[in-house]
Automatic annotation (TrEMBL):
GO terms for cellular component: plasma membrane. This is Sugar transporter. It is found in: Cell membrane. Residues 13-504 form the Major facilitator superfamily (MFS) profile domain. Keywords: Cell membrane, Membrane, Sugar transport, Transmembrane, Transmembrane helix, Transport. Its main location: membrane. It is a multi-pass membrane protein. The keyword Transmembrane applies.
Amino acid sequence: MNDSTKQNSIFKVIGASSLGTLIEWYDFYIFGSLASIIGAQLFPADAGASALINTLAIFAAGFIVRPFGALVFGRLGDLIGRKYTFLLTLVLMGGSTFLIGLIPSYSSIGYAAPILVLILRLVQGLALGGEYGGAATYVAEHAPKGKRGFFTSWIQTTATLGLFLSLGIIVLSKNIIGAEAFADWGWRIPFLLSILLVGVSIYIRLKMHESPMFTKLKTEGKISKNPLKESFSKKGNFKMVLLALFGATMGQGVIWYTGQFYAQSFIENTCKVDFNDSRYILLWAIAFATPFFVVFGAWSDKVGRKWIMLTGMLLGIIFYRPIYQMFIDQTDVSKVAVSMIKQVDAPVMTKVAIHDGQDSLVNTARKFHLTDGSSFVKLEVDTVYADPNKALGHAPTIYQDKKLSTPVFWIFVGLVFFQILLVTMVYGPIAAFLVELFPTKIRYTSMSLPYHVGNGVFGGLVPFIATLIASFAGSTPLSGLWYPIGIAALSFIIGAVYLSNKTDENVND
């Protein structure tokens, strides 16, 4: 096979692997991107902030089970091969995502709704736990030496591109059918559409061939008889598993989910920025930053993986609080000068029955248009009790649906872009880094577990834990950031002391 044919072959491998992985990430992230809307569908109308926290907890559950998926499917991948294992994970992911789009709301089936969604999220988590390790291993085992960082970094783009795709379809669906219809039933469209994407990916993956390294091992009769035992009972290999987790993937995970998921959640739910604006900010930032996955992956082939990843963690530790403080400062409309107000729309009042229809919430919304092109809605919420002995209840005034002025919008894009740039630094080289730690016969199992514990558990819990911490009495909106900052700092110290800064010139193949 000449060089040109080899090059064509590796790009076919990357394309087939990446498409399936991108779709799995798309399926997994739709839920997080729609957390606030789904929460209103799964829980009672008077649940308030707890609906969002409970929905984020369901979202987080998918991350918690990812390590179990890594063990189950990693073992299968090392026993029967990479190709058929991540075909199975794709089917499980696609099927559960499609079914989430069919689950009735709380008003129809009560608390059975969130329970059913939780079960399907657990299936999603198990499936994704087996997908990533297979795809990364498959590409790495096709890549020539000296270019593993470059070629595996294409797989690394799929997580962010899956988020980009989910956001794009969400915004497009909402704009086509309208905000009210989208909040009522249209949120189901992105879930249901996933079945078409999965079908295309399954067709492509069926045409793929098994990894040459695994095929060679199988032909020689050298595949592992017990990948789990070899991965975790042998002292040397288990040491590498722990080092990969605490020195790399743990820190990488919190940087990933802070820079993308928590950033969007914070902008939308804490800063109360308009639904579309919050997603357009992330879409632009992702579009600008995504090429840097490949840049840093390729650079790691030349200078090593370690310091690129650790630098991304260190920059997050230093800059997260100033960045998020700027988000707050730029969206504080509570003290807008009268001279800035261009127009105030007539108030819009809505009434929602609560407490089994005995009482009601009365929402009075006034939209303010400012001279710089921005706008916001001032929402006053009163509880009207049927019992005449109870006084009218007043909730604190909420400023929401903030449309940003053009200069502030692009400042936000720049701040999120910087965070995603840090994501590309920690994530671009990490597939090659993990592959190079472990021998071929137990690679799928060995690399999947630390990746999914670090990325899925420590990283995936960022939106839930950070939001929960910020809700505690005496906390500030920035309090939640101490979780990712603390985890990244611990991982940076361990990685700086114990990781080696190697490329792929000395790999356990």
